[in-house]
Amino acid sequence: MPVWSRTALALLIVMRWYDGAAAADSIVVTGVWMRPSIGATGNSALYLNLFNAGPAEDALVSVTSDAAAQSQLHMTETDGAVVGMRAIATLPLPVGAPVALAPKGDHVMLMGLTRSLKTGDHVAVELRFKIHAPMTVDPTVAMTPPQ
Ligand SMILES: [Cu+2]
């Protein structure tokens, strides 16, 4: 293969890869925060806003953090006067519909905290999606959502 055609092929591959990378930026994450721990260890909840700008339907499938032994996607359900929460396998992200994880609603439960979380602390969290590349976010520990 002549050198020029190998260069052209390499360029084509890079362009394809770049296209893929641009398309993969279709999930926008904002307003990430999490609750302080109660006591030395225990649980915390992570909240965030997700927006899928398309083109394909996606889903949040898992969340991992070095601050917790385990995490689960939870939805909050009201059955009469009883409010409970239930683990869900994935959180659907339809195209063009904002999805908010917020207090009293759906959230990510971080269980078995590996350290105590105080207001102002930062925690590294990785979000994994069905289609989109994994994303690392940096929530601030707080009592209320970021402004
Ligand atoms: Cu929960």
Notes on the structure:
The protein contains 1 helix and 11 strands; from the N terminus they run αβββββββββββ. Mean pLDDT is 87; it is low at 13-24. The strands form 2 sheets. Strands 1, 2, 4, 5, 7, 8 and 11 form a 7-stranded mixed sheet that branches. β9 and β10 (135-137) form a beta hairpin. The protein has 147 residues and is mainly β. The longest helix is centred in the first third of the chain and has 21 residues, at 3-23. The protein is globular. It has one helix at 3-23; strands spanning 27-34, 44-52, 58-65, 68-79, 82-88, 91-93, 99-101, 107-113, 125-129, 135-137, 140-141. The N and C termini lie far apart (57 Å). It has a single domain (26-141), classed as Sandwich (Immunoglobulin-like). The protein binds copper (II) ion. Copper (II) ion binds next to β8. The site of copper (II) ion has 4 residues, from β8.
Tags for this model:
147 residues, mainly beta, seven-stranded mixed sheet, four-stranded antiparallel sheet, binds copper (II) ion
Could you tell me the strand content as a percent range?
Answer: over 45%
Question: How many DSSP helices?
Answer: 1
Summarize the helix and strand pattern as letters.
HEEEEEEEEEEE
Radius of gyration: 19 Å
Global shape: globular
Helix content: 10-25%
N→C terminal distance: 57 Å
Name the bound molecules. copper (II) ion
